[in-house]
Protein backbone atom coordinates (compact mmCIF):
# COMPACT_ATOMS: atom_id res chain seq x y z
CA UNK A 1 0.00 0.00 0.00
CA UNK A 2 2.21 2.83 -1.23
CA UNK A 3 -0.77 5.19 -1.00
CA UNK A 4 -3.50 3.32 0.85
CA UNK A 5 -7.12 4.38 0.87
CA UNK A 6 -8.21 6.01 4.13
CA UNK A 7 -11.61 5.55 5.76
CA UNK A 8 -12.15 7.84 8.76
CA UNK A 9 -15.02 6.77 11.02
CA UNK A 10 -15.76 9.67 13.35
CA UNK A 11 -18.38 9.77 16.09
CA UNK A 12 -19.58 12.51 18.38
CA UNK A 13 -19.17 12.79 22.15
CA UNK A 14 -17.83 9.26 22.72
CA UNK A 15 -15.88 9.07 25.96
CA UNK A 16 -12.40 7.59 25.57
CA UNK A 17 -12.27 6.19 29.10
CA UNK A 18 -14.70 3.55 27.81
CA UNK A 19 -11.96 2.48 25.35
CA UNK A 20 -8.94 1.65 27.51
CA UNK A 21 -8.00 -1.16 25.11
CA UNK A 22 -10.90 -1.22 22.71
CA UNK A 23 -14.48 -1.00 24.00
CA UNK A 24 -15.01 -1.87 27.68
CA UNK A 25 -15.98 -5.52 28.21
CA UNK A 26 -19.55 -4.76 29.25
CA UNK A 27 -20.32 -2.60 26.20
CA UNK A 28 -22.32 -4.46 23.55
CA UNK A 29 -19.96 -3.45 20.74
CA UNK A 30 -18.76 -6.70 19.14
CA UNK A 31 -17.70 -5.10 15.87
CA UNK A 32 -15.62 -2.37 17.49
CA UNK A 33 -14.10 -5.00 19.78
CA UNK A 34 -13.16 -7.12 16.77
CA UNK A 35 -11.73 -4.07 15.00
CA UNK A 36 -9.74 -2.98 18.06
CA UNK A 37 -8.32 -6.47 18.62
CA UNK A 38 -6.68 -6.28 15.18
CA UNK A 39 -5.53 -2.67 15.47
CA UNK A 40 -3.28 -0.15 17.19
CA UNK A 41 -5.22 1.38 20.07
CA UNK A 42 -4.15 4.74 21.49
CA UNK A 43 -5.14 4.49 25.14
CA UNK A 44 -4.55 8.15 26.03
CA UNK A 45 -5.81 10.14 23.05
CA UNK A 46 -7.20 13.62 23.68
CA UNK A 47 -9.23 16.17 21.79
CA UNK A 48 -7.73 19.63 21.37
CA UNK A 49 -10.96 21.19 22.65
CA UNK A 50 -13.92 19.51 24.42
CA UNK A 51 -16.58 20.96 22.10
CA UNK A 52 -17.72 19.91 18.61
CA UNK A 53 -16.65 22.67 16.21
CA UNK A 54 -13.34 23.60 17.91
CA UNK A 55 -12.38 19.95 18.37
CA UNK A 56 -13.17 19.05 14.78
CA UNK A 57 -11.39 22.08 13.32
CA UNK A 58 -8.30 21.12 15.32
CA UNK A 59 -8.60 17.50 14.13
CA UNK A 60 -8.70 18.65 10.50
CA UNK A 61 -6.13 21.45 10.65
CA UNK A 62 -3.60 20.13 13.15
CA UNK A 63 -3.84 23.44 15.01
CA UNK A 64 -5.26 24.50 18.36
CA UNK A 65 -8.35 26.75 18.56
CA UNK A 66 -6.20 29.80 19.35
CA UNK A 67 -4.57 29.33 15.93
CA UNK A 68 -7.69 28.49 13.89
CA UNK A 69 -9.96 30.99 15.61
CA UNK A 70 -12.61 28.25 15.94
CA UNK A 71 -13.15 28.66 19.66
CA UNK A 72 -16.91 27.92 19.90
CA UNK A 73 -19.68 26.32 17.85
CA UNK A 74 -20.43 29.53 15.92
CA UNK A 75 -16.87 30.64 15.10
CA UNK A 76 -16.02 30.54 11.40
CA UNK A 77 -13.56 27.92 10.22
CA UNK A 78 -11.56 30.01 7.74
CA UNK A 79 -11.37 28.73 4.17
CA UNK A 80 -7.70 29.76 4.07
CA UNK A 81 -6.69 27.22 6.76
CA UNK A 82 -5.19 24.06 5.21
CA UNK A 83 -6.76 20.78 6.38
CA UNK A 84 -5.82 17.15 5.94
CA UNK A 85 -8.33 17.07 3.06
CA UNK A 86 -6.32 19.76 1.23
CA UNK A 87 -3.05 17.93 1.88
CA UNK A 88 -4.44 14.59 0.73
CA UNK A 89 -5.87 16.13 -2.45
CA UNK A 90 -2.41 17.58 -3.13
CA UNK A 91 -1.02 14.06 -2.71
CA UNK A 92 -3.46 12.75 -5.32
CA UNK A 93 -6.33 11.51 -3.15
CA UNK A 94 -10.03 11.73 -4.00
CA UNK A 95 -11.52 13.27 -0.84
CA UNK A 96 -15.15 12.89 0.25
CA UNK A 97 -17.24 13.62 3.36
CA UNK A 98 -20.45 11.97 4.49
CA UNK A 99 -22.01 13.32 7.68
CA UNK A 100 -21.28 15.95 10.28
CA UNK A 101 -18.16 18.10 10.60
CA UNK A 102 -19.76 21.21 12.14
CA UNK A 103 -18.27 23.81 9.79
CA UNK A 104 -19.48 27.33 10.57
CA UNK A 105 -19.21 29.74 7.64
CA UNK A 106 -19.67 29.65 3.88
CA UNK A 107 -17.00 27.00 3.19
CA UNK A 108 -18.71 23.67 3.78
CA UNK A 109 -16.00 21.56 2.12
CA UNK A 110 -12.59 22.60 3.56
CA UNK A 111 -10.65 20.53 1.06
CA UNK A 112 -13.17 17.77 0.40
CA UNK A 113 -13.95 17.40 -3.29
CA UNK A 114 -17.50 16.34 -2.55
CA UNK A 115 -19.92 16.08 0.32
CA UNK A 116 -22.66 13.46 0.34
CA UNK A 117 -24.91 14.98 3.02
CA UNK A 118 -25.65 18.36 4.53
CA UNK A 119 -24.55 18.97 8.11
CA UNK A 120 -26.95 18.30 10.96
CA UNK A 121 -26.19 21.67 12.62
CA UNK A 122 -26.53 25.19 11.20
CA UNK A 123 -23.63 26.63 9.22
CA UNK A 124 -24.49 30.24 10.07
CA UNK A 125 -23.51 32.17 13.21
CA UNK A 126 -26.79 31.78 15.09
CA UNK A 127 -25.14 29.96 17.99
CA UNK A 128 -22.83 32.86 18.86
CA UNK A 129 -22.77 33.33 22.66
CA UNK A 130 -23.86 36.68 24.04
CA UNK A 131 -20.56 37.68 25.64
CA UNK A 132 -22.00 41.08 26.65
CA UNK A 133 -24.14 39.36 29.29
CA UNK A 134 -21.86 37.10 31.36
CA UNK A 135 -24.77 35.72 33.39
CA UNK A 136 -27.00 34.99 30.41
CA UNK A 137 -27.64 31.40 29.35
CA UNK A 138 -25.57 30.85 26.25
CA UNK A 139 -26.20 27.18 25.58
CA UNK A 140 -29.01 25.17 24.04
CA UNK A 141 -28.19 22.35 26.46
CA UNK A 142 -29.59 21.98 29.94
CA UNK A 143 -30.52 18.90 31.95
CA UNK A 144 -33.54 18.02 29.82
CA UNK A 145 -31.63 15.43 27.80
CA UNK A 146 -30.47 13.79 31.03
CA UNK A 147 -33.95 13.69 32.53
CA UNK A 148 -35.75 12.56 29.36
CA UNK A 149 -34.14 9.51 27.82
CA UNK A 150 -35.31 6.12 26.64
CA UNK A 151 -36.03 3.97 23.59
CA UNK A 152 -37.55 5.60 20.52
CA UNK A 153 -38.87 4.60 17.10
CA UNK A 154 -36.99 7.34 15.24
CA UNK A 155 -35.15 10.58 15.96
CA UNK A 156 -33.57 13.33 13.88
CA UNK A 157 -30.18 12.02 14.96
CA UNK A 158 -30.92 8.43 13.94
CA UNK A 159 -32.39 9.56 10.60
CA UNK A 160 -29.25 11.59 9.94
CA UNK A 161 -26.81 8.83 10.87
CA UNK A 162 -28.74 6.27 8.80
CA UNK A 163 -28.45 8.56 5.77
CA UNK A 164 -24.76 9.22 6.48
CA UNK A 165 -24.01 5.48 6.47
CA UNK A 166 -26.21 4.72 3.46
CA UNK A 167 -24.61 7.36 1.25
CA UNK A 168 -21.11 6.39 2.37
CA UNK A 169 -21.71 2.73 1.51
CA UNK A 170 -23.03 3.64 -1.94
CA UNK A 171 -20.00 5.86 -2.54
CA UNK A 172 -17.63 3.02 -1.62
CA UNK A 173 -19.39 0.68 -4.06
CA UNK A 174 -19.10 3.37 -6.74
CA UNK A 175 -15.35 3.55 -6.11
CA UNK A 176 -15.10 -0.19 -6.63
CA UNK A 177 -17.25 -0.14 -9.79
CA UNK A 178 -15.33 2.65 -11.48
CA UNK A 179 -11.86 2.86 -9.99
CA UNK A 180 -10.21 6.17 -10.76
CA UNK A 181 -6.67 4.95 -10.45
CA UNK A 182 -6.07 7.15 -7.43
CA UNK A 183 -6.56 6.47 -3.72
CA UNK A 184 -9.47 7.88 -1.76
CA UNK A 185 -10.04 9.38 1.67
CA UNK A 186 -13.64 9.08 2.84
CA UNK A 187 -14.71 10.60 6.15
CA UNK A 188 -17.93 9.14 7.59
CA UNK A 189 -18.92 11.28 10.55
CA UNK A 190 -21.85 10.33 12.76
CA UNK A 191 -23.62 12.49 15.34
CA UNK A 192 -24.30 9.59 17.74
CA UNK A 193 -23.81 8.92 20.66
CA UNK A 194 -24.23 12.67 21.28
CA UNK A 195 -27.31 13.54 23.35
CA UNK A 196 -30.30 13.20 23.30
CA UNK A 197 -29.68 9.80 24.85
CA UNK A 198 -32.36 7.90 22.94
CA UNK A 199 -31.91 4.70 20.98
CA UNK A 200 -33.79 2.24 18.81
CA UNK A 201 -35.43 -0.54 20.87
CA UNK A 202 -33.15 -3.26 19.51
CA UNK A 203 -30.12 -1.44 20.93
CA UNK A 204 -31.83 -0.27 24.12
CA UNK A 205 -32.83 -3.87 24.90
CA UNK A 206 -29.21 -5.05 24.79
CA UNK A 207 -28.70 -3.60 28.29
CA UNK A 208 -30.27 -4.44 31.64
CA UNK A 209 -30.80 -1.13 33.41
CA UNK A 210 -30.20 -2.74 36.81
CA UNK A 211 -26.67 -3.60 35.69
CA UNK A 212 -25.76 -0.11 34.41
CA UNK A 213 -22.86 1.37 36.37
CA UNK A 214 -23.04 4.51 38.48
CA UNK A 215 -20.31 7.18 38.41
CA UNK A 216 -17.04 6.19 40.06
CA UNK A 217 -16.59 9.74 41.35
CA UNK A 218 -19.84 10.79 43.10
CA UNK A 219 -21.37 14.26 42.76
CA UNK A 220 -19.65 17.00 44.72
CA UNK A 221 -21.39 19.74 46.63
CA UNK A 222 -21.12 22.89 44.46
CA UNK A 223 -19.58 24.68 47.45
CA UNK A 224 -16.75 22.14 47.43
CA UNK A 225 -16.16 22.15 43.68
CA UNK A 226 -13.14 23.66 42.01
CA UNK A 227 -13.92 26.80 40.01
CA UNK A 228 -13.63 24.94 36.71
CA UNK A 229 -16.32 22.41 37.73
CA UNK A 230 -18.54 24.97 39.46
CA UNK A 231 -18.84 26.97 36.24
CA UNK A 232 -19.88 23.93 34.21
CA UNK A 233 -22.33 22.93 36.96
CA UNK A 234 -23.97 26.36 36.76
CA UNK A 235 -23.75 26.54 32.98
CA UNK A 236 -25.84 23.40 32.47
CA UNK A 237 -28.25 24.27 35.35
CA UNK A 238 -27.35 20.95 36.95
CA UNK A 239 -28.33 22.13 40.42
CA UNK A 240 -31.89 22.83 39.27
CA UNK A 241 -32.50 19.19 38.37
CA UNK A 242 -33.26 16.33 40.73
CA UNK A 243 -30.99 13.54 39.52
CA UNK A 244 -31.49 10.17 41.19
CA UNK A 245 -29.46 7.00 40.71
CA UNK A 246 -32.27 5.68 38.51
CA UNK A 247 -32.01 8.73 36.25
CA UNK A 248 -28.23 8.38 36.00
CA UNK A 249 -28.57 4.71 35.09
CA UNK A 250 -31.22 5.49 32.50
CA UNK A 251 -29.11 8.25 30.94
CA UNK A 252 -26.10 5.95 30.74
CA UNK A 253 -28.37 3.23 29.37
CA UNK A 254 -29.31 5.50 26.46
CA UNK A 255 -25.69 6.51 25.90
CA UNK A 256 -24.44 2.93 25.86
CA UNK A 257 -27.28 1.87 23.56
CA UNK A 258 -26.25 4.65 21.15
CA UNK A 259 -22.70 3.27 21.20
CA UNK A 260 -24.14 -0.12 20.22
CA UNK A 261 -26.00 1.58 17.36
CA UNK A 262 -22.68 3.08 16.18
CA UNK A 263 -21.12 -0.37 16.47
CA UNK A 264 -23.68 -1.65 13.97
CA UNK A 265 -22.86 1.21 11.57
CA UNK A 266 -19.15 0.41 11.81
CA UNK A 267 -19.97 -3.20 10.91
CA UNK A 268 -21.93 -2.06 7.84
CA UNK A 269 -19.04 0.04 6.56
CA UNK A 270 -16.38 -2.60 7.21
CA UNK A 271 -18.56 -5.16 5.46
CA UNK A 272 -18.93 -2.78 2.51
CA UNK A 273 -15.14 -2.45 2.24
CA UNK A 274 -14.85 -6.24 2.21
CA UNK A 275 -17.64 -6.83 -0.34
CA UNK A 276 -16.28 -4.08 -2.60
CA UNK A 277 -12.80 -5.62 -2.52
CA UNK A 278 -11.32 -2.52 -0.86
CA UNK A 279 -10.51 -3.83 2.62
CA UNK A 280 -6.91 -4.89 1.94
CA UNK A 281 -5.97 -1.47 0.57
CA UNK A 282 -7.74 0.73 3.14
CA UNK A 283 -6.61 2.10 6.49
CA UNK A 284 -9.54 2.53 8.89
CA UNK A 285 -9.33 5.23 11.56
CA UNK A 286 -11.93 5.31 14.36
CA UNK A 287 -12.11 8.44 16.53
CA UNK A 288 -14.42 10.82 18.39
CA UNK A 289 -14.35 14.62 18.61
CA UNK A 290 -14.64 14.74 22.46
CA UNK A 291 -16.22 12.84 25.34
CA UNK A 292 -19.13 13.13 27.77
CA UNK A 293 -18.97 13.42 31.59
CA UNK A 294 -22.03 11.16 32.05
CA UNK A 295 -22.55 12.14 35.70
CA UNK A 296 -18.95 11.72 36.86
CA UNK A 297 -18.27 14.30 39.61
CA UNK A 298 -21.91 15.35 39.21
CA UNK A 299 -21.14 16.87 35.79
CA UNK A 300 -22.73 16.20 32.41
CA UNK A 301 -22.02 16.67 28.71
CA UNK A 302 -18.63 18.23 27.81
CA UNK A 303 -16.69 21.56 27.97
CA UNK A 304 -14.46 20.18 30.72
CA UNK A 305 -10.84 19.01 30.83
CA UNK A 306 -11.61 16.01 33.04
CA UNK A 307 -10.94 12.63 31.46
CA UNK A 308 -14.53 11.69 30.64
CA UNK A 309 -14.97 14.88 28.62
CA UNK A 310 -11.50 15.31 27.09
CA UNK A 311 -10.29 11.79 26.31
CA UNK A 312 -11.38 10.10 23.08
CA UNK A 313 -11.03 6.68 21.45
CA UNK A 314 -8.46 6.46 18.64
CA UNK A 315 -7.96 3.22 16.69
CA UNK A 316 -5.79 2.60 13.59
CA UNK A 317 -6.64 -0.53 11.60
CA UNK A 318 -4.61 -1.85 8.65
CA UNK A 319 -3.34 -5.42 9.06
CA UNK A 320 -0.68 -4.98 6.37
CA UNK A 321 0.67 -1.86 8.09
CA UNK A 322 -0.17 -1.97 11.82
CA UNK A 323 0.14 -4.96 14.13
CA UNK A 324 -2.26 -5.21 17.08
CA UNK A 325 -0.84 -3.21 19.99
CA UNK A 326 -1.75 -0.62 22.61
CA UNK A 327 0.07 2.70 22.75
CA UNK A 328 -0.07 4.35 26.19
CA UNK A 329 1.70 7.71 25.77
CA UNK A 330 -0.60 10.75 25.43
CA UNK A 331 -1.45 11.81 21.87
CA UNK A 332 -3.75 14.47 20.46
CA UNK A 333 -6.19 14.76 17.60
CA UNK A 334 -4.00 17.61 16.28
CA UNK A 335 -1.56 14.81 15.38
CA UNK A 336 -3.88 13.50 12.67
CA UNK A 337 -2.99 16.00 9.94
CA UNK A 338 0.71 15.08 10.09
CA UNK A 339 -0.27 11.42 10.30
CA UNK A 340 -2.32 11.57 7.11
CA UNK A 341 0.44 13.44 5.26
CA UNK A 342 2.86 10.72 6.40
CA UNK A 343 0.55 7.90 5.28
CA UNK A 344 0.14 9.56 1.89
CA UNK A 345 3.90 9.57 1.35
CA UNK A 346 4.54 13.21 2.15
CA UNK A 347 6.88 14.78 4.69
CA UNK A 348 5.18 15.96 7.89
CA UNK A 349 8.12 18.35 8.37
CA UNK A 350 6.93 20.22 5.24
CA UNK A 351 3.65 21.22 6.93
CA UNK A 352 3.86 24.93 7.59
CA UNK A 353 1.54 25.15 10.59
CA UNK A 354 0.72 22.28 12.93
CA UNK A 355 0.86 21.60 16.65
CA UNK A 356 0.99 17.87 16.03
CA UNK A 357 3.30 15.11 14.89
CA UNK A 358 2.73 11.97 12.86
CA UNK A 359 1.52 8.91 14.75
CA UNK A 360 2.23 6.52 11.88
CA UNK A 361 5.56 5.31 13.27
CA UNK A 362 4.08 4.95 16.76
CA UNK A 363 1.25 2.88 15.31
CA UNK A 364 3.89 0.67 13.70
CA UNK A 365 5.53 0.10 17.08
CA UNK A 366 8.18 2.82 17.36
CA UNK A 367 8.72 4.75 20.57
CA UNK A 368 7.88 8.45 20.63
CA UNK A 369 9.84 11.09 22.46
CA UNK A 370 8.16 12.12 25.69
CA UNK A 371 6.16 15.28 25.11
CA UNK A 372 3.42 17.49 26.48
CA UNK A 373 0.13 17.88 24.60
CA UNK A 374 -2.29 20.77 24.97
CA UNK A 375 -6.01 21.52 24.82
CA UNK A 376 -7.87 24.82 24.91
CA UNK A 377 -11.41 25.95 25.62
CA UNK A 378 -13.08 29.31 25.21
CA UNK A 379 -16.80 28.94 24.61
CA UNK A 380 -20.09 28.96 26.47
CA UNK A 381 -19.62 28.52 30.19
CA UNK A 382 -16.27 30.29 30.53
CA UNK A 383 -15.32 33.94 30.16
CA UNK A 384 -11.53 33.66 30.11
CA UNK A 385 -9.47 31.25 27.98
CA UNK A 386 -8.83 27.93 29.73
CA UNK A 387 -5.96 25.56 29.00
CA UNK A 388 -4.90 21.97 29.66
CA UNK A 389 -1.42 20.46 29.49
CA UNK A 390 -0.79 16.71 29.74
CA UNK A 391 2.49 14.82 29.83
CA UNK A 392 3.09 11.15 30.54
CA UNK A 393 2.24 11.57 34.22
CA UNK A 394 0.47 14.84 35.02
CA UNK A 395 -2.46 16.87 33.81
CA UNK A 396 -2.61 20.62 34.48
CA UNK A 397 -5.60 23.00 34.17
CA UNK A 398 -4.94 26.72 33.87
CA UNK A 399 -6.97 29.92 33.57
CA UNK A 400 -6.27 33.52 34.54
CA UNK A 401 -9.42 33.50 36.67
CA UNK A 402 -9.18 30.06 38.34
CA UNK A 403 -6.77 28.45 40.80
CA UNK A 404 -4.79 25.80 38.87
CA UNK A 405 -5.53 22.09 39.06
CA UNK A 406 -2.85 19.40 38.90
CA UNK A 407 -3.54 15.66 38.79
CA UNK A 408 -1.21 12.67 38.77
CA UNK A 409 -3.04 10.66 36.12
CA UNK A 410 -0.97 7.51 36.73
CA UNK A 411 -1.67 7.31 40.47
CA UNK A 412 -5.01 9.14 40.42
CA UNK A 413 -6.82 8.32 37.15
CA UNK A 414 -10.15 9.50 38.59
CA UNK A 415 -8.68 12.98 39.21
CA UNK A 416 -9.77 13.13 42.86
CA UNK A 417 -6.68 14.73 44.43
CA UNK A 418 -5.65 18.22 43.27
CA UNK A 419 -1.89 18.54 43.84
CA UNK A 420 -1.50 22.13 42.63
CA UNK A 421 -1.03 23.58 46.15
CA UNK A 422 1.27 20.79 47.36
CA UNK A 423 4.85 21.95 48.11
CA UNK A 424 6.06 18.60 46.79
CA UNK A 425 4.71 19.51 43.35
CA UNK A 426 5.66 23.20 43.24
CA UNK A 427 8.32 22.62 40.57
CA UNK A 428 5.86 20.71 38.38
CA UNK A 429 3.39 23.60 38.63
CA UNK A 430 6.12 26.12 37.80
CA UNK A 431 7.12 24.06 34.77
CA UNK A 432 3.58 23.91 33.46
CA UNK A 433 3.06 27.62 34.13
CA UNK A 434 6.17 28.38 32.09
CA UNK A 435 4.74 26.39 29.17
Explain this structure to me?
The chain is α/β, with parallel strands linked by helices. The protein has helices spanning 30-37, 52-61, 65-68, 84-90, 144-147, 156-177, 201-204, 227-235, 245-275, 307-310, 336-343, 360-363, 426-434, and strands spanning 5-11, 40-42, 45-46, 94-99, 114-115, 150-151, 184-189, 198-199, 282-288, 311-312, 314-317, 325-327, 331-332, 373-377, 386-390, 394-399, 402-408. The strands form four sheets. The protein has an eight-stranded mixed sheet with strand order 5-4-7-1-9-11-2-12, sandwiched between helices. The protein has a four-stranded antiparallel sheet with strand order 14-15-16-17, covered by helices on one side. Strand 15 (386-390) and strand 16 form a beta hairpin. Helix 6 (156-177) runs parallel beside helix 9. The protein is globular, with a radius of gyration of 21 Å. The model has no long low-confidence stretch (mean pLDDT 94).
Write the SSE topology:
Elements (H helix, E strand, L loop, with lengths): L4 E7 L18 H8 L2 E3 L2 E2 L5 H10 L3 H4 L15 H7 L3 E6 L14 E2 L28 H4 L2 E2 L4 H22 L6 E6 L8 E2 L1 H4 L22 H9 L9 H31 L6 E7 L18 H4 E2 L1 E4 L7 E3 L3 E2 L3 H8 L16 H4 L9 E5 L8 E5 L3 E6 L2 E7 L17 H9 L1
Parallel strand pairs: 1-7, 1-9, 2-12, 3-13, 4-5, 4-7, 6-8
Antiparallel strand pairs: 2-11, 3-10, 9-11, 14-15, 15-16, 16-17
